[in-house]
Amino acid sequence: LDGWASTFSGLEQALTNRLQRVVSLAVGASHTAIVTDAGDVYTWGWGDHGQLGHGSFRNKQQPRLLDTLFYKAVSYTGRDANLRSNRSRAAETVKIKEIAAGDDFTAALSEVGRVYTWGSGRKGQLGNGIFRNCAYPQLVEGVKRKVAQIACGSHSTCCVGDPGTVYAWGIEAMLGQGKAFVGHGDQATPLVVPII
Fold first, then answer.
1. pLDDT score at 9
2. CA-CA distance, 67 to 109, in Å (whole number)?
3. Is-above-0.90 flag for pTM?
4. Whose CB among 7, 62, 73, 137 lies 3.0–4.6 Å from 91's, allowing a Cys bridge?
5. Looking at residues 128-154, what average pLDDT do you find?
């Protein structure tokens, strides 16, 4: 086997040895992310926009555990050494149940219904209020409801919050705001999509 298939086959065997199985899979333009039934995330591929979430902009040819999700409520400086030294101060581990990917960014849904994003933010698709790339997971704080589902387009993100409220952010044309919103530009914070 070559390329992606051999990488996934090796990961599958390693997870089987740990009694874990893959429950969610997402493929972006040049990266892959999976979630195991233990709530762990593994990513690999190109990392040039931070879409792998490991705190760097480097490529990873083999699946790597996304250990940056171990550090909820710990400030992250962007250097792996500092991140690892803060592990003991983590408030809790974030367990993920669903993963989605756009062209060069990733979104994850936690077991408690919170959305985390990382990677390219140039069109606002990370939902963190800024139009910059981020190489580690950040909580999307603008979604105020528990989220049940996430999805990504090439440069946009959507989610369904309880009780059926749809949020969208990213490239202007994908926000579902109608003609009145055209010309307002890309959106870096979640907007409620008006359902008719």
1. 67
2. 16
3. no
4. 73
5. 94
